[in-house]
Amino acid sequence: MKRDHDTHEEFGLSSFQDDKLISGLSRIIRLAVRFLAVLMTFVIVWGVWDVVWVLCERLMAPPFMLLEITDILATFSAFMAVLIAIEIFINIVMYLKDNVIHVNLVIATALMAIARKVIVLDTAHVESAYIFAIAAVVLALSVSYWLLHKTAPLAWVAARKAKDERA
Prior knowledge:
Blueprint: H1 20-60, H2 69-98, H3 103-119, H4 128-166
Helix pairs in contact: 1-2, 2-3, 3-4
């Protein structure tokens, strides 16, 4: 019995439906993506442990139970790294579920990653060109995200209309 995700249409390969090589390669890719999901789970658990470790280490160091701004930034950095790993895991799961790379989710993940960079940025130790480069990346990702969300409802309406016409 063929499952939906075993068909070649998931990769846009419906014209190769009878090709055993493509079929085998498609299964290998699917297995590789599942393995990446398992590895990302390990990264998330390791990251949570790192957040706990960093926080405990900073709280136990003199002055006892007090955090300096560098300690807080280190904690934020570790915490946001875990959140980014979770977003990447969600990207992987959505790919496995829908067999499509969700560009809006990828851009949202990239925005979170650059936000992490901005939050922990020590402006005293970086050149202005670096700050301008980060600003350009933030602007590009923000515009991309906005454009995707502005056009997404239109694409959904068009897809729904096409589906209704086929039925």
